Amino acid sequence: MTTSGLTPAEVDQRRSRGQSNVVRAHTSRTVWSILRANVFTRFNAIIGALLVVVLIFGPLQDALFGLVIVVNSAVGIVQEWRAKRKLDALALVEQAPVRVRRAGEAVTVPPSDVVVDDVVLLSAGEKVPVDGVVVESAGLEVDESLLTGEADPVAKAIGDEVRSGSFVVAGSGAFRAVHVGDEAYAQRLVASVRRFELSRSELMIGINRILRAITWVIVPLGVLLVISQLSSAGSLDAAMVGTVAGLVPTIPEGLVLMTSVAFAVGVIRLARRQCLVQELPAIEMLARVDTLCLDKTGTLTAPEMDLADIVMVDGLSTVDQQRARDALAALARLDEAPNATMRAITEAVPPADGFVASATVPFSSTRKYSAARFAERGAWCLGAPDVVLPADAPLRVQAERIAATGRRVLALGELPDGALPGGQLPAESVPPTVRPAALVVLRQRLRPDAAETLAYLHDEGVTMKIFSGDHAESVGAVAAQAGVPDAQSTVDARTLPTDTAGLTVALREHAVFGRVTPEQKRGFIDALRADGHTVAMTGDGVNDALAIRHADLGIAMGSGSPATRAVAKVVLLDNSFATLPRVLAEGRRVLGNIERVASLFLVKTMYSLVLAALVGVAHVPFPLLPRHTTLVGSLTIGIPGFFLALAPNTQRWQPGFTRRVLRRAVPAGLVAGVAAFVAYGLGRLNTASDQAADRSTAALTLFLAAAWMLALVARPYNWWRVALVAGVVVAFVVVATVPLSARFFALDFANLANVGIALVTAGVAAVLITVIHFYDNRNAAATT
Fold it and tell me: What is the distance of C-alpha 197 from the center of its chain?
C-alpha cells in the first residue's frame, strides 16, 4: 500500500474482516444500572411488603406511607439519569469526523469508518483517532498528555508511532492505521476501567445496617403483633392494619427519603456551578475527603505556557539586548499556526518595527530550530540549546542547569553575516560561528485559581498529593508555584517500591511525584486508602482513569477523555479547578445537616419498636393507626427535617455517624415510646372514653414528645427555626380542630381528661429528653 491510500474495494475487504474502528461505547452508566441501584433496595422491599398488606386489609388512607417508595426512587433515578444524558451529550459532541486519503483523494469519514491501513491525515488541533505509524511529517508535534501525563509535545518523524487519544499541536502529517477499535492503545487502557462503581457511602451503610437489624427484628415482632392484635382487635382486617401500624414506623423511611432529597438538592446546586454529579451518594464523599490527589497536567496547569525569563548573555549592551528581544518577537510571529511555546513568547514580548523576514527556515522536529533573515536587521535562529549553542558556550551550561529544574529552555542566536544555515537550503544544524544572544525560559501556565483553591483546601484539613508523568523537578516547580506544602520534596516514581507498604511510607513523607505511570497512580490511591484515608482523585486524561475509578471519589474535567468522565463520580464541566471548594462546602453542608436531623428519624424508629414490643406483650389494640404515625412523623420529622437538611452548615465531617446518632436517638425514642404507651394505658382506664379517644391520647402524647425533640435539634435558633417549630405545633392544632381533617386522621379530643393525661405525660417525657440531649452534647464536646 502507498501513501495514496486504500481503494474502495480494499476498504470493504477490511471492513468485512472486522478491521474497522468500531468500539464499545462507554460514556456513562446504563439506564438499567441506574434503575437497579435506586429501585431494588432493602428499604423498598420492606416498605413494599407492608404496603401490600395494608392495600389488602385496610383503607387506602392508611397506605399513605407507601408514597415514600415512589418519591425516594424517583429522586435518585431522575438526578442520575440527567447526569447520564449530560455525559452522553458530551461524548456525542466529541465524535469529530476523520480525514483519510483514499484512492489518492482526501475524504472525511466518521471515526467508526476508519479501517486498518487507512492513511489518516493530521493537522494542528486534530485528535489522533487510532494507533498507527507516521508516513508523512511536516513539523508534526503531538500532545500525549492525556495518555502519559507528560506536558511537553512530542515531535513525530516518519516511522514514529502515534497513539489514539493524543492530538496534534503543531505541523501536519499523515499516518497509516495499524490498531483500530478495541485494539487501539486508548481503548486498551480504558478496558480496565469499564465498570462504574457506586460510592461507598458511610451514611447509606449505616442506614442499611439499621435496616438489616430491623429486617431481623420485624419478623418475630410482626408475629407477636399479629397474635396480640388477633386476640384484642376482633377481626383479621383490624389485626393486620394494627400490625402494619406497629411495624411501618420502625423503618426510618423518612431518613432514607430525606437523604435522597438532600443529596439531590446538593446535586442541583452543584449543577448550577457547572459541576455534574453522577450518583447521589457522591455528595457524601465530597464531605468526607481528607486527601486530594491531583494530576498536574490539565488540572493544576492550563494547556498554555508562560514566558518565565529571558536570560541575556553576559556583556551585551543595552542596544544589543533590545535587538535580541526584537528578533525574538519577530521569530515567534513567523508561524501562522504557532504552538504553545511561540504563543507564550508573542504574549510576553511586544512586536518590533522593521523586522520583515526576507527568508525563513521553518521549525522542524528534526532540525529543532527555526531561523529567519530580517533584511538589515540580520539573521537570527531560535531552537534547542544543544542545537543552537556551541558545545563550549557558557550559556549552554546555564541552559542545562535551568532545564534540570523542569522548565523548558530555548536558545536565541545571531547568525554571522546575516546568512541562513545552509544558504538557500535549510541545514540540519546551525553553524558553530553563531553568536549566542539569550536563553528563553518558559514554564507551564498555572491555572489562575489553583493557588487560592489549594490554600482553601489546606485550611480545611485536606492533604494534597500531586502526581504527574512529567519530570519530577518540573512537577515540583509547578506545585511550589501553586502553594502545595513540601512541594520541593519531589520523588521520581521510577525509584519507588511496588508494594503497598513501601508506597504508604513514601506517600506519608512526600507530596509531589513525577514520572508516574497510570498503574502507579492506581497503586498510590490503593496505598492511601489502605492507610485509612478517604481519597479523591482529579484528572482529565485516559492515564488518570484507573486512579479515578479506584479512588473513593473520582473527579474528572469536562474537557477530559470520555473514559475518565464515565468512571468519575463528579465532572467539572467548565474545567474550573476553583469549583472544588464549592464542591467540598456543598458536601459538608448536606452531610452535616443530615446528621443533625437523622436523630429525629431514628427517634421514631425507636419509639415504634418500643410501642410494638409493649403492645405485643400487653395484648392490647395498637395505640395508633397508620395515619396517626404518618401525621406525627410528617409534622415533627419529615417536613421540618426537610428545611433543616437544606440549611447552611460548615461543620467538618467526623467518622462515627451511626454511633453518634444512635447514642442520642435510642434513649430519646425509648422515653417517647413509653410515654405514649403509658398515656394510652391511662386513657383506657378512663371509662368515659372510647378506643378512638384513647388512640388520640397516645397520638397527642407522641406528637408533643417528638415536637420537643425537634425544638432541641433545631438549635441554635434564628427567626425561621423558631417559626418552623411554632408552625409544626399550629399545624397539628389545625388538623385536630378542623372537623374534616380530624375525621380523616381519626382524632378525637372531646374527652378533656384524656387530653390532660397526654399533656402531663408528654411534659415528663420532655424533661427526660432534655436531660438526655444536653448530657449527650456535653459528652460530644468532651471527646472532640
Answer: 13
84: Cβ contacts below 8 Å, ≥ 6 apart: 28, 29, 31, 34, 278
Provide the 10 A C-beta neighbour count for residue 240. 20
pLDDT tens-digit profile of 115-174?
Answer: 999 999 988 767 888 899 999 988 788 877 666 656 567 888 889 999 887 878 777 889
pLDDT band (50, 70, 90) for residue 55:
confident
Neighbours of 340 (CB within 10 A): 22
Q: 371 with 415: CB under 8 angstroms?
A: yes
**Of 620, 767, 772, 619, nearest to 695 (Cα)?**
620
Kindly give the residue spans of alpha helices, DSSP state H, lying in 248-309: 253-272, 282-288
Alpha-carbon span 615 to 115, nearest angstrom? 75
Residue 177: phi and psi, rounded to 5, are -70, 130
* Three-class DSSP labels, 182-221: HHCHHHHHHHCCCCCCCCCCHHHHHHHHHHHHHHHHHHHH
Cα dist from 508 to 462, 473, 478, 505, whole Å: 14, 19, 20, 5
Residue indicated by cell numbers 541575556: 312
Grid cell of 508 as nine digits: 506519608
Nearest to 769 by CA among 712, 716, 725: 712
What ranges make up the beta strands (E) of 22-97? none
Provide the 8-state DSSP code for 6: B
Q: Which of 227-241, 262-276, 589-603, 670-684 has the lowest mean pLDDT?
A: 227-241
Work out the percent of the chain whose per-residue pLDDT is above 90: 17
Average pLDDT over the chain, rounded to whole?
Answer: 81
Instruction: Give the integer Cα–Cα distance in Å for 189 and 539.
Output: 15
Residues labelled catalytic: 295
pLDDT of residue 198: 47
Q: Is 481 exposed, middle or buried (0-12, 13-18, 19+ CB in 10 A)?
A: middle
Residue 752 CA to residue 758 CA, distance in Å, equals 10
Question: How far is Cα of residue 34 from the mean position of the Cα atoms in its chain?
Answer: 17
Q: Which residues of 269-287 are buried (b: 16+ CB within 10 A; e: fewer)?
A: bbbeeebbbbbbbbbbbbb
Most confident of 217-231, 361-375, 455-469, 695-709: 695-709
- Torsion-angle region of residue 734: left (phi > 0), alpha (psi -120 to 50) or beta? alpha
Distances (CA, A) of 442 to 60, 143, 223, 311: 74, 17, 77, 11
pLDDT > 70? residue 321: yes
In terms of Cα–Cα distance, which of 333, 623, 650 is closest to 460?
A: 650
Between CA 313 and CA 752 the distance in angstroms is 101
Could you give the maximum distance between any two Cα atoms of the chain, in Å?
122
